[in-house]
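Convert to structure. Protein one:
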Amino acid sequence: MENHFSNAQRAEVLTQALPYIRQYNGKIVVVKYGGNAMINEQLKEQVMEDIVLLWLIGVKIVLVHGGGPEISEVMDKLGKKAQFVDGLRVTDKETVDIVQMVLAGKVNKTLVNLLEMKGGRAMGISGMDGRLIEAKTKNEKLGYVGTITKVNIQPVLDLLEKGYIPVISTVGCDRDGNTYNINGDTAAAHIAGAMGAERLIMMTDIAGILRDRDDPSTLIPEITCAQAAELREEGVISGGMIPKVDCCVEAIRKGVKNVIIMDGRVPHSILMEILTDEGAGTMVKGDGGIE
């Protein structure tokens, strides 16, 4: 497809992106990355290219990642069956060791390596490094599933100041040396809030918030936190979208300007969101309609 573009058209595209480049230069954008966009290798490369491009034009980009499918895969190989309660993985001591190994090890370093291959400078850390994510037990039934008690954001700020793309795996710790599995969306909301990020981008497996979940053309492009509560009561926001939207609202309450829920399966959706008029997905913003 690239061959159909003349040089003049390419120049025009870049010119149209200029106001957005100016707007986001030097600003913090947090990307929560997971789901199918993470499993498909070609999509994964495109996401990393997008992140490096934004980093090259001066966006302070922070990548927060999950890795649920990879954790399940390793558990299967080890003959350990995944159990879920209310959509949350039951995490015993053996499972939390696997979570730490897969997220802070394999997944994190694979993403760092990809970003470096695409021309970026990346540094991988976990929520345990520098006590970035402190946590406590969320529910005894879930074992080592953590709820965040404190975010120590300085290690991330240090990496940004040195010109790195921080890549953060969502495992947390407490003062007693326990490790916790932390929900990636929740971690991203807390991290973005602690940094006062310009934008939090939540990459998911659907187009955004849909009035009719079976019809992508019913995408709601923009809602406030108050409207999110109304849509939840109406049943428009339901199932797995409820905790995701709760995280968006939480991020805004903590000081993020706005949050985007977007389909990570669409190639270059991050660039479409940041550098074009069209945008992508659903934008959640404060009740004052903060731009």
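Protein two, convert as well:
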Amino acid sequence: MKKFIRAADACIAVMLIFIYVLVGVGDYSLPDRISTYSSKDISYNSIYKVDVTENSQVDFQNNARVSPSESEIKLLGIIPVKSAQVTHESEQRVYVSGECFGIKLYTDGVIVVGTKDVVTDEGKCNPAKEAGIEKGDIIISINNVKMTSSSQVEETFNDNNGKDYEITVKRNGNYKKFTLTPVYSKSEGRYKVGIWVRDSTAGIGTITFYNPENSSLAALGHPITDVDTNEIMPILNGEAVKANVTKIYKSTDGEAGSLSCDFTNEAIGSLSVNSNCGIYGKYQCALSDKRLYKVANSQEVEKGSAQILCTVDEKGPQLYDVEITRISYRENNDEKNMVVKVTDKNLLEKTGGIVQGMSGSPIIQNGMLVGALTHVIVDNPEKGYAIFAEKMMQQSEEIK
């Protein structure tokens, strides 16, 4: 009898530990905010359940959102794990693309990409650094004159006789003022401030979708960052143009490949937002040949087979087989909600896996748009990260 009791106690202890682990994992990995298109209960991994009608203030019948409701995510529908804000939204459909395009961006302000020493009679010094200006700062104005281009900044700094400059910069969302004192470089015969700046960039990517509700386009799934500072580039304005793939540099273990493209003069649209969820703007192209898909909520995404729509040759957007191997609901992980593995032999033969330029390629599963590729995993280029389509859709809806 004692042995039986000890065995029962051990089983209960193991079961309690198992439940405790599942609750802890759920609390860490499950989202704090949930969107849904219906009144059906939500399930994560078949073990975590959400009753979306519990304490709901949503009129499901009329498809109207009154306000988010607080609901419990429960293990097996019984044991509370965490609370989540549940929002009911109308079902949304977009035209998925998969077409490669050229990106031209001009910044809102001028980015400081570095500072450098100036050689004077007294030795080397770094005026910009000594003034407090840092790599990644965005120069907004000099002597109260708004700066819009690197050439304007250069002309302003070159036109001086050693007088101080009052510099306003934007850093981490905050505005700061600095006094920058030039120093005389005898070798160059003029005053110098020791600063490098950039005001524009260009690149290629893939259009994810066009939103017919507000004529917006969404692409990349990740932000465009400055190559030197790694800061998100603030957009003043930008342009999306059609591009033709001319060559593929295949990915290999340890080295990401890329698409090489020629830009055309045919505009797709304008670009106005550069965010953690991608780049966005207004489209000005015909959508007659595009595929219309429902946008999936994050909880509708499943591990398993899917397809990506991307352009790697003159045939234009084509569907290729992939597998979603991992799903993460962490809300601070915008660009890495999923891990996707390329399984299509034809695509592997052409590209070696995922290459630069494929960012934004739509991911289709169960007849829905579930996400977009964002980054290649360099050490294993058959795999890459992806963002939920739901997040890109939310950003798209804010485009005016």
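The helical segments are 2-29, 127-131, 150-158, 345-351, 389-396. Confidence is low (pLDDT under 50) at residues 55-66.
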